[in-house]
């Protein structure tokens, strides 16, 4: 079934709509599911962090190289977003080696000797864009990774901490962000859920400001964002199943590391023909129209069917949950902090009960 992606919309909306199917493919890959459930062997998780380190190191160096580019400058904020140093710190902690020596660890040496094909292609693409006359497409790679880290990455952090027995931020600093306008000093408190939402809104505004009304650029960024999702799916496919896996697990609906970078408010289609040499893009260049659209294939979906009992039970559950949230004071910014504290207490309580 055909749907429409309107290139007159802000680029943040276009990327949300146009990457929906690629995002679904990424989060339902086996590797992403293992990661989301905290089922990877610790060494395999470290190997995944090593791959991410090389990806972030590549595009963060590229973003720094083009920091004053008009498309990239509005969202360039290394003090807030840079992940390379955090990844290095987490890898070192998990391997129990110094940050100066982790790259000579046998696990990393083996990966460098025979780098995964997906990693080589991902980093190669970033290097290609960095060396190109127009590096604007780098924005799509930053969008997919950074906003994914701010969204589903926060769920993954809790799973990783529990799976590997990590306390505080040790070993999971990759998933931490400082408040908008803050520094990365040790005295800064990590951003809570409300602050992370504010950071994402700031990033979307910066993207829209940098891209403006340039529809050809919007189409190119949509193309590149889908490419970035496919690269990340390929990285997940490089992951190996746990050596303790007892059998096949049923797919679960868990936030993935690339959980929707811009929260959708409605089902979103995937554009199928937005390559830089595509006929549609060539038509766009020649049309000169003020409003251009792409025909897209809508993600397949089945009409949901619910029984009356299920609907009534859901309404009752929501009502009770709303009552508890309001009476318990779990609303607003202070409510976020209180809710996070309750969640941590429950994790610790049930973790202790399970071990007893």
TrEMBL record:
Entries under InterPro entries matching the protein: Haem_Oase, Haem_Oase-like, Haem_Oase-like_multi-hlx
Pfam families reported for this sequence: Heme_oxygenase
An example Gene Ontology biological process: heme oxidation
Listed transmembrane segments: 309-330
MF annotations from Gene Ontology: heme oxygenase (decyclizing) activity; metal ion binding
Annotated keywords: Heme, Iron, Membrane, Metal-binding, Transmembrane, Transmembrane helix
Keyword Signal applies: no
Superkingdom, taxonomy of origin: Eukaryota
Name by which UniProt lists this protein: Heme oxygenase-like protein
Organism: Lentinus brumalis
